[in-house]
Structures are given as structure tokens and as C-alpha cells.
Amino acid sequence: MIGIPDITIEAVIARYGVLLFDAYGVLVDAAGPLAGAVELLRKLDRLGKPYYILTNDASQLPPTAARKYHTYGLAVDPERIVTSGELLTAHFADHHLAGARCVVLGPADTARYVELAGGRPVALGDPFEVLVMGDDAGFPLRDTMDALLTVLFQKLDRQEGVHLVLPNPDLIYPAGEHRFRMASGSLALILEAALQLRYPDRPDLRFARLGKPNSAIFAETLRRSGTRDMVMLGDQLETDIRGANDFGLDSVLVTTGVGASTMPSLPDHPRPTYRLRSLAPSG
Question: Distance between CA atoms of 188 and 168, rounded to whole angstroms?
């Protein structure tokens, strides 16, 4: 990727009315806050500059996430956190899933998102109509994936339908310096590949993907902020940058997190408006 201008965080603050941050890889990783994040959010609060955290993480309700951020020194109000889990409410309404029995992969907050959307979480061995691949944690991974694949095959062999939902399309996320983990999007790809192998004439057996790069999370932030004068700061090209570009927003690739691993050999598309090497002040 040639010709992407660098920008400083001071210039981003001055140029845009509202700042949108990805969480993991920009502000935090699994080990704690990233360099410059605590000071930056304190500065934005002093300036009265609006900002939101747009996260594909569906494992925590906004109040839970806010409490975790506070332990990192990031004083973030829950109202500033927009999660992919919150998008389940509109998805369930649009697809008439109120009251549907749902197998939910993820911790307790993921199941709570489903309840708030109108779904009824059930155990994997119970009858169900919806599978929500909410997170990659909160369950024994190998045993659960094996059991889930078997149940899905049995269900589809009986000609029963299933609605597949993936709030978080992320494939990977940063777990610390030079360390990464698979996210729920990778698990969904495994299931989709297995379903396609057994049912090659069923292209419908794919997850509905809700979070970035899809537009719903940006539309919700637009509703909250009331302005399109926003810029997305993210570390992942295929989610943060592509999503902002498709929604008509400027985007800044922060070369921490996953963004650091793709430098300098980046593809031409999606193309960020700017590149930011650090959240810390310049000079």
C-alpha cells in the first residue's frame, strides 16, 4: 500500500468532530491498555471531544466492558461503547426470531444479549432454531465444536431449518505483544466449511454477520452521535477500515495490534485515509 499519508493523533482530534475507536489492538489488548490510550481518553474528556468505542466483542455487555476498561485506567462510560452484541436486537426483530430457542456459544453476557433480543437460550442438547456464535470463550472449545457439528448434521438431515448468527466476524485479535488469538469468526468459518462439505447444494448455510465491516454498527453510532463528521481508528483492514470506508467515513489504520503484523505489505483495498503509528502525542 503506497501513498497512505501518516497523521498524528493531534491532527485527528482537530480534524474530526467524533472519534470512533476499535477496542482490541487500538486501545487495549488482552494484557491491558496500549501505549497512549489512557492519556488520550483523558485528553478527549478534558476537551469535551465525543468518542465511541466500536467493538465486535459480543462477550461483554457495555457496563461489563466499561468496568473492565476502568481496571485498565480507561474511564469509559457504557453509553460510549457500541458492541456487536447489541445488534442482535434489530436482527432478531427483522427476522421474526422473538421467542426462538437459541444455542449460544459464549459467556453469560452473550446469552444475556440474546435474551435482550427476545431469544430463549437453551442447552446444546435441547431443540433449537437459532445458533448464535457469540464468542470463542466460555465453553470447552473442542468438545463443544464437535458436539455442535454433530447436532447440526442431525438437525439438517431431518430437514429442520436453523438460523446462524455471528455477531463478531473477527478472525483474530491481539492477545499481547506479538501474540494473537482466534476469534469467533474463525470458528464460524470452520462450521461453514464443514456444512458446505456435507451439504454442497445449501449455500444458505452461512452465518449472518453483524459486526464490522457491516453497516449496522456504524449506523447505530451515527444515531447516537447525530453526525457523519466521524472517523474510524482501527487496526484491522477487513473490519475497521473496510467497514468505515463502505459507510462513507474516513478511516485511520493504527499500526498496533493486527495492523502491525500487516505492515509494510498491505493490499490496495481496503485503503485507509491515513496511517497512525501511535496513540501517543507526537514530539
Answer: 10
Say yes or no: do domains 9-56+212-276 and 97-209 share a fold.
Answer: yes
What is the pLDDT at residue 30?
Answer: 79
pLDDT (0 to 100) of residue 113: 98
- Predicted TM-score (pTM) of the model is 0.90
Task: Find the DSSP H helices in 118-183.
Answer: 141-157
178 vs 267: CA distance, rounded Å: 21
pLDDT score for 173: 78
Residue with the three cell numbers 468459518: 189
Q: Which fold has domain 97-209?
A: Rossmann fold (3.40.50)
User: Which of 210, 150, 249, 184 has the alpha carbon at shortest distance from 24?
Assistant: 184
Q: What angle do CA 93, 129, 82 make, to 5 degrees?
A: 40
Closest to 136 measured CA to CA, from 180, 96, 179: 180
- SS3 assignment, position 120: strand
How far apart CA 276 and CA 59 sit, in angstroms, is 28
Q: Report which of residues 183 and 260 the model is more confident about.
A: 183
Note the residue count of the chain: 283
CATH for 9-56+212-276 (3.10.310.70, 3.40.50.1000, 3.30.70.20, 3.40.50.150) = 3.40.50.1000
Check pLDDT > 90 for residue 265: no
What cell numbers appear for 121 in the block? Answer: 437460550
Tally the C-alpha atoms within 13 A of residue 104's C-alpha that lie toward its C-beta: 25
* 91 Cβ contact partners less than 8 Å away, ≥ 6 residues apart: 97, 117, 165, 208, 210, 216
User: For the chain, which residues make up each domain, given as ranges?
Assistant: 9-56+212-276, 97-209
